[in-house]
Amino acid sequence: MYNAQTSTLDLKLIILFLFSIVLVSSITVASMTTSAMVAMLMVVLFILNGFIKGKFILIQHPVQKPLLLLLLWALVSLLLSELLTSKALPSAEELNIYKWITGLNSPQVRGIAFLFRLFLSIFAIQYIVMYVNSEIKYIKVVNYYLLAYSMVCVYVIIQISLFIFFGIEVGAIYDNFRFGGFIGEPSTLAGLLVSGYFLILSLLIKTNKSIWYSISFLKCIIIIATIDLLFTFSAAWIPSAIIAFVLTGRKYLGGKKLIYLLTAVLLLSIIFHEAFYLSVIKKSMDPLINVINAIDVGSAYSTEGYFMFNSRIATMISGIKIFLNNPISGIGIGKSPFFMPLQMINDFGYEARFYSEAYYSSRIPPLNTYIQWMAETGIIGLAILIYIIYSLYKQSKRINNASYKHLINFGFGGALIAVAIAINAIPDYLYVGYINFLIAMYITGIKLFGGKSLNNNRT
Question: Which CA distances in Å does 422 have to 45, 244, 368, 376?
């Protein structure tokens, strides 16, 4: 009786987690996201179960050791940043210019808070792998995720329709018709849309009788999701999704379906060509063009004396310089925003060109998760992160069940490829709930359907 009750509670908590990352992901309490708060509940329930059973057991999975190694090195790096004077934070006088260093973002606790966020992300992955331990549970979680994902897609298409046809503004709408749904930031919405996009396509390619939704419904949602994604005009996520399709589509979609899908995206891009060019293509290409121009003139500055790179590239260069000053262990997890504005002012004179109250009110990490992680945890931290990505990729070859190969390798694996590309232009994505969910469901699928009989995984 006890095992049955706790198993039901565990599954309900996992379903609550997936709804927290999809439907209420923009809500924060004391700088903690809803998914992090649900992850805290997972930790509490795990501890209670351990005391009741008299033992604490973490079920092994293929990427468990690299993830725990990442957490351990983040702790070591943070300790070194506190102990070594060469890694000391800027002076109190310099930090006083920042308007955001309060509460969990204060110099005394921000590193600890980010270490805890990383722990919650890794524990959420572990919890899902532990308790989604059968085919029935796996499909149930997929079904609930599709339900929440469909609700987001419908909301955003309603938001777009109300604004375009009736001039009614609902939710977040930015310049150039960039829509953010109820989440706010269009790029964050785009990442969420990409996280479920490959999953629906995988179910359209190879149907599964246990899925609650009809093929017609899934086709409708994929069309709506495509329109929603294009209207985010995300220079990070749209190109990344297209590249992921090209890399995986030929194998899992087939040549004809891949061509049809890319043609549909191209036609929609042509229809909305002006906004698409300004917000996606030009925004994606500007950093490269600026670098080429700078090389041509032999200087990073224009004839007017202004720095030619855009702010995104400037943060990446400053992040690399911070890393070069602290190459082994970095400056400590979560601490890059304390160094970045001062580094950018020193390197590029950003204070003179961009001085405003907003500049000091914003937390500015390197706008690239890899460079951010490299600056904060050094070359060792980056090596561990790359090893985790490699470990995930390597596991894809283990799936030997034809019924789930497309769903796991394309549905979740394809989305993870898009994530790995997109975070080259986005910071802080090691802590995002829907990425933790994608990793967990990918690992869980490999554990359930890779090299084992399904009969051994049913409950």
Answer: 34, 10, 9, 19
Q: Which residues pair with 178 in a beta bridge?
A: 174
Nearest-5° Cα angle at 32, 316 to 107: 60
Average pLDDT per run of 10 along the chain, which is 459 residues long?
60 92 66 83 91 84 93 95 83 75 84 93 95 93 95 93 88 78 83 94 88 95 92 87 82 66 66 53 46 38 45 83 92 90 72 52 83 95 94 80 84 94 87 91 90 43
CA atoms of 235 and 232, how far apart (whole Å): 9
Q: Give burial (CB, 10 Å; 0-12/13-18/19+) of 273.
A: exposed
φ and ψ at 343, to 5 degrees? -65, -40
DSSP designation for 179: E
210: three-class secondary structure by DSSP? coil
What phi and psi values does residue 179 have, to the nearest 5 degrees?
-105, 140
The C-alpha atoms of residue 290 and residue 306 are separated, in whole angstroms, by 12
CA–CA separation, 22 and 156 (whole Å): 13
Amino acid in the structure at residue 367: L
Query: Which residues are 33's β-sheet partners?
Result: 28
**Phi then psi for 174, rounded to 5 degrees?**
-110, 180
Helix H or strand E encompassing 172:
strand 172-174
- 194-208 burial, b at 16+ Cβ within 10 Å, e below that, comes to bbbbbbbbbbbbeee
What count of residues does the chain have?
459
User: Looking at the whole model, is its pTM more than 0.70?
Assistant: yes
Distances, alpha carbon 315 to alpha carbons 284, 286, 322, 371, in Å: 15, 15, 10, 9
Query: Would you put residue 184 in left (φ > 0), alpha (ψ -120 to 50) or beta?
Result: left
